[in-house]
TrEMBL record:
Cofactors demanded by this protein: pyridoxal 5'-phosphate
Sequence positions that bind substrate: R130, M292
Pathway field: Amino-acid biosynthesis; D-alanine biosynthesis; D-alanine from L-alanine: step 1/1
Top-level class of the enzyme under EC nomenclature: isomerase
GO molecular function ontology, one term from the record: pyridoxal phosphate binding
Domain of life: Bacteria
GO biological process, one term: D-alanine biosynthetic process
The entry's keywords: Isomerase, Pyridoxal phosphate
Protein name according to UniProt: Alanine racemase
PROSITE patterns reported for this sequence: ALANINE_RACEMASE (PS00395)
Family: Belongs to the alanine racemase family.
Cellular component GO terms held in the UniProt record: cytosol
EC number: 5.1.1.1
Length: 344
């Protein structure tokens, strides 16, 4: 069903995604640089994101579930997709019909997949205590004779570059990698790439950094990817002393023009946001509380704001995360399905 003409708009800058990927590719040196496109491309649309990255030279993509592979449709030529949650025995029949390989995460998955005779990836848990074989399992002979394309692990603390677990996990992974034959080895996510060449190995898996979140390699600035626009449904005049929104949390100190726009927390715009909008170049502060479907902005100094016009709503990931208490990952993946989406 198409979006309403008055739906809020989500603008995705695929050129910015490509520019960010290229920064991680350069920092990956001779290693291949892939892209995490799970959760529907971190909420931004896996198919258009993958198409843009593939055109730029990305050849490895990562999703979490097999239905995400099916949703991608025909893959761009030369692109390989890996499913990070592996393949449970009940999923193998479906997995055999799709153009992707599993990242096997348990001994039972390894045993079930071995019978297919097909290549696979393997995840080893090196200290995060999430998915993956233990290092002891990985070197026990369990993987003997298996066609392992890529041996993976995942870093837990890259947002804290000096955290001792980073170096400890790298050391464990290097030891396992020296004892398990594979075509490639992969440890670094976006933050892992930023830790430097010792963490790169043969393949990197940037995710949040592609979409403008987190740190950039070498301190470079990542390009913003997301812009929101919302329709002005009504403009009203509020006298001094008048309250706006639930709880009357904003009380006008002067005669105030208020734009009521069609955007709210049901669209993934946080209720606790301390944001702003822009109308014809004029910055207009968010006032009152964000409600389910509506948000209010002070447009007293923006005469161009009127019923039927549009307001560009700021969505700086770092600032929004700090104001809302939510992670940048949550903010991106929480953007709802009600937007009219555009890609450029």
């Amino acid at each position: 069903m198409p979006a309403s003409p008055l739906s809020a708009r989500l603008h995705v800058d695929t050129a910015a995604i490509v520019a960010n990927w290229r920064r991680f590719a350069v920092a990956s040196g001779p290693a291949d640089c892939g892209a995490a496109i799970k959760a529907d491309g971190y909420g931004l649309g896996a198919r258009p994101v993958l198409a843009a990255l593939a055109a730029a030279g990305c050849r490895d993509a990562f999703v979490a579930h097999w239905d995400e592979v099916a949703a991608l449709g025909p893959l761009p030529e030369g692109v390989r997709v890996a499913v990070l949650h592996g393949a449970a025995p009940a999923e193998i029949g479906m997995a055999m019909t799709l153009p992707a390989r599993p990242v096997l995460v348990t001994a039972a998955q390894v045993a079930a997949w071995r019978a297919t005779g097909r290549p696979c990836d393997i995840m080893v848990d090196t200290g995060m205590n999430r998915l993956g074989l233990s290092p002891a399992e990985a070197v026990s002979g369990l993987l003997d004779g298996l066609a392992v394309d890529t041996l993976h692990s995942h870093l837990a603390c890259t947002e804290e570059p000096l955290h001792p677990l980073n170096a400890a996990q790298r050391a464990v992974f290097a030891d396992v990698a020296a004892r398990v034959p594979a075509r490639r080895y992969a440890l670094a996510n976006s933050g892992g790439v930023c830790l430097g060449p010792d963490y790169v190995f043969g393949l990197t898996r940037p995710g949040i950094g592609l979409y403008g979140g987190g740190a950039a390699p070498g301190g470079a600035r990542l390009d913003p990817v997301v812009q929101l626009s919302a329709p002005v449904l009504q403009v009203r005049d509020v006298p001094p002393g008048g309250g706006v929104g639930y709880g009357a949390s904003f009380v006008a100190a002067r005669p105030t023009r208020v734009a009521v726009v069609g955007l709210g927390y049901a669209d993934g715009y946080p209720r606790s946001a301390a944001g702003f909008g822009v109308v014809d170049g004029v910055v207009c502060p968010l006032i009152g509380r964000v409600s389910m479907d509506l948000t209010t902005f002070d447009v007293t100094d923006a005469p161009a704001a009127r019923e039927g016009s549009w307001i560009d709503v700021g969505f700086d990931l770092a600032a929004m995360a700090a104001a809302s208490g939510r992670s940048q990952y949550e903010l991106l993946t929480g953007l709802g399905r009600r937007y009219a989406r555009t890609y450029r």
